[in-house]
Write a structure and sequence with these properties.
Layout (H helix, E strand, L loop, with lengths): L5 H24 L5 H17 L6
Length: about 55
Amino acid sequence: MLTLNQSQKLVRICDLYKIIKPILLVILSIPFVPRKIKEAIKIFIENLDLVCPIPTA
């Protein structure tokens, strides 16, 4: 069993977030997605952007 320390877990979370963020943004653009779901996704994105800043080149 693989055990990860805190920094390794954060790196893993940020790596996964980089993959799913574009998908989340597409979901936000779909008109028939309920407002409450969109609000939850926006809050999720805002918080993970603070934890895992994605560099803009």
